[in-house]
Amino acid sequence: MSDLPTESVPLSREQRDVVDLNLLCSNGFFADPVLELGTEEQKREWLTPLTGPDTPMTALATTEPGTGSDAASVVTTARRADDGCLLSGQKAWISNAGEAEQYVVFAKTDPARRSRGVSAFLLRKGTEGVSFGQPVKKMGQRAIVCREVFLQDAFAPEEHRLGAEGRGFHGLMRTFDISRTVLGAAATGVARAAYEYARDYARGRQQFGRPIVEHQAVAFRLADMRTRVEQSRLMTWRSARRLDAGLDATVEAAMAKLTASETAAYRTWAAVRTLGGWGYSREFPVEQWMRAAKPEEIEEGTLDIMRLVTSRSL
Ligand SMILES: Cc1cc2nc3c(=O)[nH]c(=O)nc-3n(C[C@H](O)[C@H](O)[C@H](O)COP(=O)(O)OP(=O)(O)OC[C@H]3O[C@@H](n4cnc5c(N)ncnc54)[C@H](O)[C@@H]3O)c2cc1C
């Protein structure tokens, strides 16, 4: 990750509307539990297509209408049947649902237990008993569709279970260590774009006879933006380096995600402020980045949950 460029690549308005880093990274969210829990055969069958030219879309389904932050309390069940399990329940807020061909679904094989009762299953779109809700109408992030997934005795054969029964929650937590680091990078990118745009605008915009960057209030705001972007980038790199080295990165990933997503939220807001009234116009990209920053605070664990994970290490 240390080779990443630190200057942003300019995109056209049309490109900005369709490019979403979370979408580009979303197949990793599916692949990580397969890599963590899957057999060599499962990795070949389900991950090889992701490396080809016609990459299928994928999804990871854990959230439910009554279960969000407390992922161990999922109530979707996986009942034993001949040579496999029947999955029943309802998932909510699933990115790519309905569009995706392949799913990892988390369900309880032992409803009496919490995290140790959760198992992970691979499902294909088109499996009997799998259906989808309407797209959620969101504040932003238009490139990604989020839907409910309905499971009515959807059959997952034995060879579609990832890892041993009860190992699903462990796989989900390892997945979060990676996906929170990736999200840290995405949020850093949004914040960086906002900072660079605001900086360039402030150099060019004149008020009271000089560029607004020469007014100290504006310059200090930009200095804070730059500092926070650097901080997010370094914390994300540190988490990524630990993961690359095969080390535990649960706390580093949580701190990186917390820092980067707060940075994205506050610094895109600061960019809108730096453009004055024009920041509020859709002719400029900063309002879009402000909306794009919001889900970074929620997905894969809210800011409160990042603080909870970090506080457990004290
Ligand atoms: C754009 C988007 C895409 C998503 N994509 C997916 C996806 O692909 N797959 C998937 O499975 N899910 C997905 N989600 C769901 C997401 O993971 C959950 O929304 C998130 O985990 C929070 O759960 P919740 O919405 O039920 O909020 P809740 O858990 O009900 O939390 C509500 C509030 O209470 C706080 N809170 C809860 N527990 C605690 C605690 N112990 N201490 C302090 N505060 C607490 C939270 O921080 C939050 O502020 C997506 C969500 C969004 C917005």
Automatic annotation (TrEMBL):
For activity, the cofactor(s) needed are: FAD
| Keywords associated with the record | FAD, Flavoprotein, Oxidoreductase
Similarity comment: family membership: Belongs to the acyl-CoA dehydrogenase family.
Looking at the record, the residues that make up the Acyl-CoA oxidase/dehydrogenase middle domain are 59-153
Name of this chain's protein? Acyl-CoA dehydrogenase family protein
Species whose genome carries this gene:
Streptomyces cylindrosporus
Domain Acyl-CoA dehydrogenase/oxidase C-terminal per the UniProt entry, residue ranges: 166-313
Q: Which InterPro entries match?
A: Acyl-CoA_Oxase/DH_mid-dom (IPR006091), Acyl-CoA_Oxase/DH_mid-dom_sf (IPR046373), AcylCo_DH-like_C (IPR036250), AcylCo_DH/oxidase_C (IPR009075), AcylCoA_DH/ox_N_sf (IPR037069), AcylCoA_DH/oxidase_NM_dom_sf (IPR009100)
